[in-house]
């Protein structure tokens, strides 16, 4: 009985600590989604209803906080990735893949914009971006292996072209640069992918 009462406060403190950490990450994500690409510790603290000191009790520095934010968003967008059977007819695979990729690119836009700001100064963010790029490229290979193999000696060039066509930078160029809406941008991605793989 005595052991239970001695561990209860520790469990309570641990739970409060986890809730505070989650609140800090949630607040940072919300600020990024509102367009604040460089949220300062005071702004994060205010949004999370914690002290600035509390942020640095949970994260060694803002780079570690941004890494935690990236992990949160990766977990969120990973739910948008559903493997597409590679033996489906080409047009069905293309339709499904481009729709899924469009949802994913739209979802990652806030963190990608922030990563463009912080990435040059953060090896951790750069590494996560590279891992994300590798994952997206592997999805292309898995889904369109038949068409890539049919390209023969040009396979790598076709894959690079497809990777560029369905990249976040292409998406951002249409959404933010040209002001296109999401359905229009998705249709353009479909056209680009079809042209590359034709």
How does this model look, in words?
- By secondary structure, the chain is mainly α.
- It folds into 2 domains: 58 residues, Orthogonal Bundle (Arc Repressor Mutant, subunit A); 125 residues.
- Helix content is 79%, strand content 0%.
- It has 10 helices and no strands.
- Helix 1 packs across helix 4 and helix 5 packs across helix 10.
What's a concise summary of this model?
The chain has helices at residues 2-33, 41-48, 52-58, 62-78, 90-118, 123-143, 145-150, 155-165, 168-177, 182-197. With 198 residues, it is mainly alpha-helical. It is elongated, with a radius of gyration of 21 Å.
Per-chain topology:
Blueprint: H1 2-33, H2 41-48, H3 52-58, H4 62-78, H5 90-118, H6 123-143, H7 145-150, H8 155-165, H9 168-177, H10 182-197
Helix pairs in contact: 1-2, 1-4, 4-5, 5-6, 5-10, 8-10, 9-10
Q: How would you spell out the order of helices and strands?
A: HHHHHHHHHH
Flag low-confidence runs. 1-8
**Percent of residues in beta strands?**
under 5%
Rg (CA only):
21 Å
Please report the total strand number as a whole number: 0
Give the mean pLDDT. Answer: 87
Q: Major sheet: size, sense and barrel closure?
A: none
Q: Structural class of the helix and strand makeup? A: mainly alpha
The helix fraction, in percent, is over 70%
Count of structural domains: 2
Principal-axes shape call:
elongated
Number of helices: 10
Report how far apart the termini are.
72 Å
